[in-house]
Amino acid sequence: MNTMAHSSSVDNAETHSHASPAAEIARTLSSAFADNAGHIDATDTFVADNYRLLQEAGLVEIGVPLELGGGGANVTELAEMLRIIAHACPSTALAFSMHTHQVAIPAWRWQHQKLAAVEPLLKRVAAEKLILLSSGGSDWIGGSGKAVKVDGGYRISARKIFTSGANAGNLLMTGAMVENDDGSHNVIHFAAPMKAEGVSVVETWKAMGMRGTGSNDVIFDNLFIPDSGVALSRKAGEWHPLFQIISTIAFPLIYAVYLGVAESARDIAVGLAGKKPLSAHSFNLAGRMDTNLRAAQLAHQWMVNIAARNAPSATTVNETMIGRSLIAEHAIKAVDLAMELAGGSGFYRDNRLEQRFRDIQGARYHPLQQGPQAHYAGAMALGQPVDHIF
């Protein structure tokens, strides 16, 4: 039998040949992550022990610039790191991608916009190994929650859903809506300390897949945020240049995880298929699986290349979100085919393929989802405004 059929897609994908320090550290942790992944999935347990390993290994601060005490990893290297972690434990990779992109964004702004305001945060991440949380899709362009102006700041009431890693986080990077005198709304952005009075976590995460991410709800009950803690105020429901930066940088990192899940499913399926007689149907399934996987890999490389241009704009959002949709489509299809290739053995939990089938479904749900993404791309193609398409 051709031994290349069983070689790991981590090591043989042409688009991921560079081995960065972040990737090498991730590889050293993979065995420990993989050992716990089954128990975590079966019990809906948050990957707390894996977070401690990430902190001890220096990956929490790996995206902070070297000058500020971090590891200096760029988006390409961070994506590779997350992809590798996803092979071992998808939940760890997805939860950690939320911290990773919340570090990568201010790091990019410090390096390319010379924004001094983000320096204290980055230095704290490096020195204190802070875990940053994202309220992500529960906020997005539209905003969520209510902010009321009071003397010296704002009082915040909100429920932030899908807060991955909520129980391990130090700061939640989020926002809330302020009603203006004319009835319009602005969104203020701030970092909410997770131990502040008025902040609590509600254990809501009982999900189909990515069961170990601990993506619980975070409640703000009259949380006070001082005026000095407001990093930005923007119009609600309208693209802002900051969100062009967020989209261009964050999504190559988040979708590196789903690519890793699909690659892992492919490797498991090839191993299981090799234990039974092969047929022309097996070859067909394996070929279609690898073709879809390659499409996902190429789409991800495109997203990384767009980020590497260091010029976020409405156009880079479009290109990034096209890549995001292509990865979701082809990665999900590749895992579907992996299940079919493996046959009945893929249905057993112990083989871990059915977990990948469940985990990959999460690729559907991050913004821009299929409908808004197509709307955005179509408007761009026809020269129409995209400011309110999200």
Question: Could you please describe the fold and organization of this structure?
Answer:
The protein is α+β, with helices and mostly antiparallel strands and 390 residues long. It has 3 domains: 3-131, Butyryl-Coa Dehydrogenase, subunit A, domain 1; 136-235, Butyryl-CoA Dehydrogenase, subunit A, domain 2, CATH 2.40.110.10; 241-381, Butyryl-CoA Dehydrogenase, subunit A, domain 3. The chain has 11 helices and 8 strands. The strands form 2 sheets. Strands 1-4-5-8 form a 4-stranded mixed sheet. The model is unreliable at 1-7 and 12-17 (pLDDT under 50). InterPro entries: Acyl-CoA_DH_C, Acyl-CoA_Oxase/DH_mid-dom, Acyl-CoA_Oxase/DH_mid-dom_sf, AcylCo_DH-like_C, AcylCoA_DH/ox_N, AcylCoA_DH/ox_N_sf, AcylCoA_DH/oxidase_NM_dom_sf. Residues 1-21 are annotated as: Disordered. Residues 1-12 have a biased composition (Polar residues). Residues 136-222 form the Acyl-CoA oxidase/dehydrogenase middle domain. Residues 256-366 form the Acyl-CoA dehydrogenase C-terminal domain.
Distance between the termini: 49 Å
Q: Which residues sit in consecutive blocks of at least 5 with pLDDT less than 50?
A: 1-7, 12-17
Structural class: alpha+beta
CATH topology of the largest domain: Butyryl-CoA Dehydrogenase, subunit A, domain 3
Q: How many runs of DSSP E, i.e. beta strands?
A: 8
Notable traits:
single chain; 390 residues; Butyryl-Coa Dehydrogenase, subunit A, domain 1; Butyryl-CoA Dehydrogenase, subunit A, domain 2; 3 domains; four-stranded mixed beta sheet; four-stranded antiparallel beta sheet; 11 helices; 8 strands; 15% strand; globular; disordered N terminus; AcylCoA_DH/ox_N_sf; Alkylation response protein AidB-like acyl-CoA dehydrogenase; EC 1.14.13.235; AcylCo_DH-like_C; oxidoreductase
